[in-house]
From TrEMBL:
Highest taxon above the source species: Bacteria
Protein name listed in UniProt: Queuine tRNA-ribosyltransferase
Subunit description: Homodimer. Within each dimer, one monomer is responsible for RNA recognition and catalysis, while the other monomer binds to the replacement base PreQ1.
Keywords: Glycosyltransferase, Metal-binding, Queuosine biosynthesis, Transferase, tRNA processing, Zinc
Length: 378
């Protein structure tokens, strides 16, 4: 259940009550595709990094180790040793990202596994069954994430099919939640709005899926090649047609600047691989933009990644030492940067929540963006 606490313009401050605890929103969900955060970060680490929600990937866990294996082991929470909320995506994004390995039909999608080439079929019912086996807190509806750019005809047909799939997902989840051997009988379902950059298709789809009274709603198919200004326009046009009393989730987004802009347009759930992926490539997020610690100028720099940061990396280690670890290809360097970046994102979300509560979000956003732009990075 979602409780809206405060509005500041379009920005929402809320709480989302789940069987695995309450999520304070806006929230950034930390991405653990294969039931682990890349970069050697444990679930114990995540507790100290202010992580509220962990996100895992349905398709990847279905392929390895297998959702039935995870169910036998007591579900994803027990498997990962994580007691807070988990969101699982539906496998729909792999329809987009594995385009060379799949065939889309009305019943669902035929894949070849990216690991061993074996044939896999996933439709709405299969996606719900896999996510039920994983026993996540929130399951995402199975959809197609259409390519960008796509023709209006392709987009409309795709969105219509996604709506039909969503109705099948809702029906199947109700059935699964009623079964005796289901681990999480309170699993929630979020529907996904699609339509690319065609705002009329987006708005019509938002209206249609809102009628299904789901637990939450996501904007999918953004950050797939369109410009930031196009993405912001679509968010701005679409969000007013999604229920304000339910969470709104912008999938796969994004940079700190993207998050600040989307919060201002009414979004309150986010996920992105940027903090972990960029950390593994030597990049650190700070309030003065992104730093590339592989740069020679950090060789003798004894300062922490960011002055005043309370993350485990900044509490003990210098930029010079972390740079040395990266150059020496020591795993510790990647781990420290990933931990710093997750802490940075989660701390920014805390600041966002506080700013909305105090009715000063626009002022906060402006100051934060000015800091990022000081180094030409956001």
């Amino acid at each position: 259940m979602y409780k809206l606490i405060k509005r500041d313009g379009m920005a929402k401050r809320g709480e989302f009550h789940t069987v695995h605890g309450t999520i304070q929103t806006p929230v950034f969900m930390n991405v653990g595709t294969c039931a682990a955060i890349k970069g050697g970060v444990s679930t114990e680490d995540l507790q100290g990094l202010k992580t509220q929600v962990e996100l895992s990937n349905t398709y990847h866990l279905h392929v390895r180790p297998g959702d039935k294996v995870i169910k036998q082991l007591g579900g994803l929470h027990k498997f990962m040793v994580w007691d807070k909320p988990i969101l699982t995506d539906s496998g729909g994004f792999q329809v987009f990202s594995l385009s060379g390995l799949r065939k889309i039909k009305e019943e669902g999608v035929y894949f070849n596994s990216h690991i061993d080439g074996r044939k896999i079929f996933m439709g709405p019912e299969e996606s719900m069954q896999i996510q039920s086996n994983l026993a996540s807190t929130i399951a995402m509806a199975f959809d197609e994430c259409p390519p960008h750019p796509a023709t209006r005809e392709y987009m409309q047909n795709s969105v219509d099919r996604t709506t039909r799939w969503l109705e099948r997902c809702k029906k199947e989840m109700a059935r699964l939640n009623s079964l005796e051997d289901t681990i999480n009988k309170n699993q929630m379902l979020f529907g996904i709005n699609q339509g690319g950059t065609f705002e009329d298709i987006r708005i019509e789809h938002a209206k249609r899926i809102s009628e299904l009274n789901l637990d939450g709603y996501a904007l999918g198919g953004l950050a797939v090649g369109e410009s930031h200004s196009e993405m912001y326009r679509i968010i701005e046009e679409t969000v007013p047609y999604l229920p304000v009393e339910k969470p709104t989730y912008l999938m796969g987004v994004g940079t700190p600047a993207n998050i600040l802009e989307a919060v201002d347009r009414g979004v309150d759930f986010f996920d992105c691989v940027y903090p972990t992926r960029n950390g593994r490539h030597g990049h650190a997020y700070t309030n003065l933009g992104k730093l590339n610690l592989l740069n020679a100028r950090f060789e003798l720099d004894t300062r922490p990644i960011e002055e005043g940061c309370n993350c485990p990396a900044c509490q003990k280690y210098s930029r010079a030492y972390i740079r040395h670890l990266l150059k020496a290809k020591e795993m510790l360097g990647l781990r420290l940067l990933v931990m710093h970046n997750l802490y940075f994102y989660n701390t920014m979300m805390e600041e966002i929540r506080e700013a909305i509560e105090q009715g000063r979000y626009k002022e906060y956003k402006k100051a934060k963006l000015a800091g990022f732009e000081a180094n030409g990075e956001s």
